[in-house]
Amino acid sequence: MKLFDVYPINPIEIVKGKGSYVYDANGQEYLDLYGGHAVISIGHSHPHYIHRITDQLNKLGFYSNSIEIPLQSQLAELLGKISDKKDYQLFLCNSGAEANENALKLASFYNGRKKVIAFKGAFHGRTSLAVSATDNPKIIAPVNETDNVIFLPFNDEEALEKTFAEQGELISSVIIEGVQGVGGIRVATQSFLQKIRELSTQYNAIFIADSVQCGYGRSGKFYSHDYAEVDADIYSMAKGMGNGFPIGAISISPKIKPWFGELGTTFGGNHLACVAALAVLETMEKEQLIQNAAEIGDYLKTELQRFDEIKEVRGNGLMIGIELPEEFNQVKKDLLFKNHIFTGEAKPNVIRLLPALNIGRKEADRFLEALSERIRSYKVKL
Ligand SMILES: Cc1ncc(COP(=O)(O)O)c(C=O)c1O
Which domain range does residue 161 map to? Predict the structure, then answer.
């Protein structure tokens, strides 16, 4: 049987990881500033993470949501504390798309409406409603096509106001990434997020903060939407939550009341997933990783802004986009194959940095030197 060939992959086999470094089958070391799509939050093979998962596996790996799982309440407690949303409610699932799918569905159950406002450049996942709210027609199958999603320009307050004025009574939810990831590291302005809050409250729509990529401390605050000092009604999360163990969740405002059977999943909130997520939060708290993300992120951004060749540096904390002119479009590839540094890409000429939240100055400096070397080598060639 062959694999279903949907991923354009790099010809590298990673066999080991430690902290912010990974190693291929030949023993070559790479600096990992991508974390496998923003997933590695506390570093590869963190000892506390290994201990927690191994310990749990020796007791019980899985049982479903038909019994009491106190680990879920422990996770809810700690997440409520660290995210400063103690009165919110936690629903656990398995991925980012599933988190958004549940968020959109819950919003619709809440107000009985059908329309969703999403934004140009958005990526919310590949399940049916999440993909319909994703601004990429190529990945929307005919069966997922719907008139229920209204796409508006990102950060355009006027367009938002106009849409609410015209269709406010029909709008179930507004879904927005605090920092668009796939869309090229574009930060939602504070006043735009405040406007979403204001209009959602006025029209009884649900404000969904997609924090799957930009959340969980990555931005230098727990949720990147926190920069605007607003509370969303639902936060969706996944990637960094389990440091590689598949887990997703939504954090739900107390105003939304559950009923039995409203949402559900077989695997969501299983014992292993919960301990993985607990290990991440415990480490984030103990090692002050949100603060580190803010500090190292600021350092990187300040240093990157000194490069004359870079068109724009965007992002918050350790979610950084570096927009380069077109002639530098080989930089990402060369960083990987010549400097052995993993970075991500968003749009053709934006390098995406999504490292673990515990990278240090050493790793940041190694990247800055490598980038400078790459840019110099291109300038010689041009
Ligand atoms: C902002 C955002 N939302 C949702 C998703 C979907 O997450 P998953 O791939 O876990 O389904 C992603 C994945 O890249 C994402 O970046």
Answer: 47-286
Give residue 378's pLDDT band: very low, low, confident or very high (50, 70, 90). Answer: confident
Is residue 134 within 8 A of residue 141, CB to CB? The reply is: no
Q: Which atom of ligand 1 is nearest to the CA of 130?
A: 4
Better pLDDT: 244 or 346: 244
In CATH, what number is assigned to the domain containing residue 146? 3.40.640.10
Residues 256 and 301 in one domain: no
Q: Which atom of ligand 1 is nearest to the CA of 214?
A: 1
pLDDT digits (tens, 9 = 90+) for 305-359: 999 999 999 999 999 999 999 999 999 999 999 999 999 998 779 999 999 999 9
**Which residues, including other chains, have CB under 8 Å from residue 370's CB and lie 6 or more apart?**
335, 339, 341
Instruction: Give the residue, by CA position, lying nearest to ligand 1 atom 8.
Output: 96
pLDDT band for position 104 (50/70/90)? very high
Q: Which of 237, 269, 286 is the last residue of a domain?
A: 286
Task: State which of 257, 286, 315 marks the end of a domain.
Answer: 286
Q: Which residues line ligand 1 (CB under 6 A)?
A: 37, 95-97, 100, 123-125, 177, 181-182, 210, 212-213, 238
Q: How far is the CA of 238 from the centre of ligand 1 (A)?
A: 8
Same domain, 31 and 84: no
Please report how many Cα atoms fall inside a 13 Å half-sphere around the Cα of residue 239, on the Cβ side.
26
Give the pTM: 0.97
For 22-31, what is each residue's pLDDT tens digit?
A: 999 999 999 9
